[in-house]
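Entry for the shared binder. Reason: the reviewer on the internal report wants the predicted structure included alongside the sequence.
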Amino acid sequence: MDKRKRTFLIIALLAAIVLIGTAGYYLMLDITLMNAFYMTIITMSTVGFQEVAPMHATAQLFTVGLIVISLATIGYSGGQLIGLLLDGSLRESWREQKMKEQLNALNDHIIVCGAGETGWHIIQSLMKQNTDFVVIEFEEEKLEAVKEYGSILAFQGDATSDDVLERAGISRARSLVASLNNDANNLYTVLSARQLNPNLNIVARAITHDSHEKLIRAGADKTVSPNEIGGYRMASMLTKPNVVAFLDTITHSGKIDLNLNEVIIQADSELSNKTLMQASIPEQTDLIIIAIKEQDNEQIVFNPTKEHLLKAGQILIVLGDDKDLNKLKNLAGAL
């Protein structure tokens, strides 16, 4: 029985006893309703005040029964009320302890700051990729909406606060997304995050056009403007509809389940020091190599030739079905 039903039952039982007692004394003792109500209350509370009228045998038996029923009901009601209070307190304490244990267990995870429209799409994407992450949201309504979606690790807090970021395990995190509702909050979050973890990969939401550079100077590695991306996409749907259809396929918006992924070549892998022709990656994995990012610089080689030499530390950017990705990870020594 939930709290609302139990509370209603307690009130209903007490009200029923008061009504029965008042009606009984009114009819048996021939007194006013006020006096009958008074007699009922002093009988239920067992305070022992003087009766307002002489008590005959029937009234005495009625009083004995009313006392027994009242004591039982009040005892039950008191126990239920105490149970409700302790239940809520203990449950909240248990949830807090469980949350603390889950947060302490996080490592190499992503911190999502803000669960608004942009944050919600980030959360859904991370869930599909089975990535460990924690959500920080200041508004209780948005936080509850996130928790109702599934077993998402999320807690209420101000992401611009160092204490809140430390609670989210920022020192052990690998990335942070600042997707709050204004540039000022995103800027403060980026500043705090960069100070707490210099090696953190930070992606920040830029709302206004001139906020990109400020966020980068504050410590963000990358900035994204949902408004700009939305505008470009809408224009592309008008001028390049087939390109958009292809991109939809890659981003799981289409019916074909393809995705862009990246895999790092490890030093002890069988791909290291082989050419693309010798590695035969497409034949072994059914994945298409789109580009290769070199280890020692930011250069990205698009559509690499078969003679391209694979080295440890290079990042392979591939297109294909997610289920084939583990084949490549196994070849690259990433599993």
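Summary line for the report: The longest strand covers residues 259-264.
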